[in-house]
Amino acid sequence: MPFSVLDLVVLGVVVISALLAAVRGFTREVLAIVAWVAAAGLAWTLHPLLLPTVKQHVSSDTVSLVVSIAAIFLVTLLVVSVITVKISDLILDSRIGAVDRSLGLAFGAGRGFLICVIGWVFLAWLVQGKVPDWAQQARSREILENSGQKLVAMLPDNPEGLLKQFRKPKPETDPGTDAPAEADAPPQRRTDATPRR
């Protein structure tokens, strides 16, 4: 059976990802992921501190939120990326540089295959079972299908509930402070007073 278009695409993605990771090194690839995670975490945690300042210049609440998160994310990513480049360059120039490149080659191949699996999952979702002929006859179809099923099985059943756990709960208001104060009742006249003669 000859190679189909899908086979060539999978092979190209895996090879390109592996070569890029080998040039950059395993350390830089791992630290790059750490940089993105750290930038996302700090942006989500610290954006409430920057949000009031941004609101003074931007009227829209949605735009203010996006600008606050994006600003912290980009600055953190830039700073951490500079640090990771320095560290990875030191490792590549050391005696273990060859080992680092070899591990990067393996890491890049795995990353490329993961990208192909995710792409296959989205393709299968879009076509709803009607896979094109160039994908149906591919040698890599069965591997992508099995890997995609395992990947989907690892996802949480309720992603919305999982995201709500990371959101900060709104502070509960004291009902005693929100209730309007009752007006003082006017003094009642005494009805048991003795009538004058």
From TrEMBL:
Residues 161-197 are annotated as: Disordered. Residues 187-197 have a biased composition (Basic and acidic residues). One of its GO terms (cellular component) is membrane. It comes from the Bacteria. The chain crosses the membrane at residues 6-23, 30-51, 63-85, 105-127. It holds the Pfam family Colicin_V. GO terms for biological process: toxin biosynthetic process. It is a multi-pass membrane protein. Keywords: Membrane, Transmembrane, Transmembrane helix. Its main location: membrane. It is found in: Membrane. InterPro entries: Colicin-V_CvpA (IPR003825), CvpA-like (IPR052719). PANTHER family: COLICIN V PRODUCTION PROTEIN. This is CvpA family protein.
